[in-house]
Specification:
260 residues, mainly alpha, two-stranded antiparallel sheet
């Protein structure tokens, strides 16, 4: 559980501070027609929930199928069921029970749009990695660090964080670049323990920057509530916040643990 031991303090700081940061970033306290926007949002949400009424039979069916799929994904190492097969089983089950109809599936343009673009970006990322593009970029970053005499550890970690912009999948980014940056850190003499920790943590946290870094972000973005420019601006602020926390509080905590 070394990863948990190393992340518990910076993660707690982020969990406590992030709502305050987003409250300031999103200007939650601004007055809109004499009323607090936050109160309006809560009232609107409650009104919509009241309109929906109690949980219906179809909603319970959906919960059951989602829970079943989640269990099958978690136990994939035992059952050897492919993740895509599990998803198809879930869709077929919903169609068989009448929870949804094929028209619901075929007319959900946001979902198809996300599938088309996200799948395309993931395929491109995989092909670039197989073609040696990630290795080439890693070598160039290593040469730049040596040429400009930059501090190895923070330079590699920040570069790894920022390269998330090139991918529409965190998994694809990790597969393409994690080993490349670890090899570069080894050649440049970086602290292997701390670099591994930063790459592991930043591999997830870097998904905050864009509306296409993760599948969840893409789904949220397609609802149209947040424009792309605002998403990128907030993502940049969050990225700076994460980098600050992990390079200050995180480093101090890891020094106490004896990693440095």
């Amino acid at each position: 559980m070394t990863w948990l031991e190393g992340s518990v303090v910076p993660c707690m700081v982020c969990a406590i501070s992030l709502p305050l940061l987003l409250r300031w970033t999103l200007s939650v306290d601004k007055v809109d027609n004499g009323k607090r926007t936050g109160s309006n949002a809560v009232k609107h949400a409650q009104t919509e929930l009241d309109k929906m009424g109690p949980v219906s039979k179809k909603e319970w069916q959906l919960c059951l199928v989602l829970l079943s799929c989640l269990i099958m994904w978690i136990t994939a190492s035992v059952t050897h069921l492919d993740a895509t097969l599990v998803a198809l089983i879930g869709i077929v089950s919903l169609l068989y029970m009448g929870t949804i109809t094929w028209r619901d599936v075929s007319t959900n343009t946001n979902a198809w749009d996300t599938l088309f673009w996200l799948g395309g970006f993931i395929t491109i990322a995989q092909q670039l990695s197989e073609a040696g593009a990630s290795k080439f970029l890693g070598v160039q970053i290593s040469h730049a660090i040596k040429h400009f005499n930059l501090p190895v550890l923070p330079s590699l970690a920040i570069a790894y964080f920022l390269t998330t912009f090139l991918f529409s999948s965190l998994s694809a980014h990790i597969v393409a670049f994690a080993s490349t940056f670890l090899d570069a850190g080894h050649m440049l003499g970086a602290n292997s323990m701390v670099l591994t920790a930063l790459i592991a943590y930043f591999g997830v946290l870097a998904g905050c920057m864009t509306n296409f870094s993760t599948g969840m972000a893409a789904m949220y973005y397609t609802t149209g509530y947040v424009p792309r420019s605002k998403w990128f601006l907030i993502g940049l602020q969050m990225a700076m916040f994460y980098l600050f926390v992990y390079f200050t509080i995180g480093m101090s905590w890891w020094k106490l643990l004896g990693w440095l």
